[in-house]
Amino acid sequence: MAFSPIPAEIANPWLFLLLGSASAALASLAKGGFGGSIGLLAVPMMIFACGENAELAVGVMLPLLIATDYFAMISWWGQWELRPVWLLLPGALAGVGMGWVVLWAIQRLGAQRQTDQANAVLMLCIGAIAIAFVALQAVRAIRSRPMRFRPVLWQAVPIGAAAGLTSTLAHVGGPVVSMYLLPQGLPKGKFVATTVLYYWIGNQVKLVPYFALSLINPGSLGASLALMPAVVVGVVLGVFLHRRVGQKQFTGIVYVLLALAGAQLVFKAIQTLRAQ
């Protein structure tokens, strides 16, 4: 067969292209400003696209996310609020560092024991994070509307650390940042632009541990390149829908699907770990 950018460890290239493109489109749709929560489904979907290889999935996902960041920056240029981002960054850098250590420990586990076991641990982390975010969102939904506040550095640092850690492990720091930004009462467009700016910075910082740990490698970059057209489609569609369509009706469905995907990852991970 001719050269293919899809890594050899992916057993079903057509399933990878189908689910991987859907994952990239969902992530970029959210970055374009529509259905922000829907982007949380992207990483679990990418894991299934990669044959439940969580390490490959997060490596394929990061260049796609960075590409969406650049497209989204063009769409939302200059509309952001700078202060919340600067307050988040010190904690976010610390969180990325903590995530680096956790990923290194998972890889070390794979080197010392079995790669399947290390992959299961990473899947377990991602699945547990997905379920936890659904639970947090449910708590937010039943509480009264939060009072507006203007955070200071000591409040932003732990939130930034949580966002940096979860984003490094599973590319799902969005709910943490949203819970930080929403009470600040930013207009809808400014809210989206501020999250875009934060992740434009944060995702590029994550390149350091991802290259250092070889999570991004020639094989994963080829796979990312194969899925790049879906990023363009998703961002353009996200910007278009943000300005024309309400998104409340999608929220419940997204969180149900995310909970199911997270539960499936946790179940498969526990099965693998018990079999070792």
Topology, element by element:
Layout: H1 13-31, H2 42-49, H3 54-75, H4 82-112, H5 115-142, H6 153-170, H7 174-181, H8 188-205, H9 207-212, H10 218-242, H11 248-275
Your description of this structure?
Helix content is about 75%, strand content about 0%. With about 280 residues, the protein is mainly alpha-helical. It has one domain. The model has no long low-confidence stretch (mean pLDDT about 80).
Provide a concise account of the structure shown.
This protein has 276 residues and is an all-alpha fold. It has eleven helices and no strands.
Tally of alpha and pi helices:
11
| N-to-C SSE string, H for helix and E for strand | HHHHHHHHHHH
Structural class: mainly alpha
Q: Report the helical percentage.
A: over 70%
Strand content: under 5%
Averaged pLDDT:
79
Low-confidence stretches: none
Record field, number of beta strands: 0
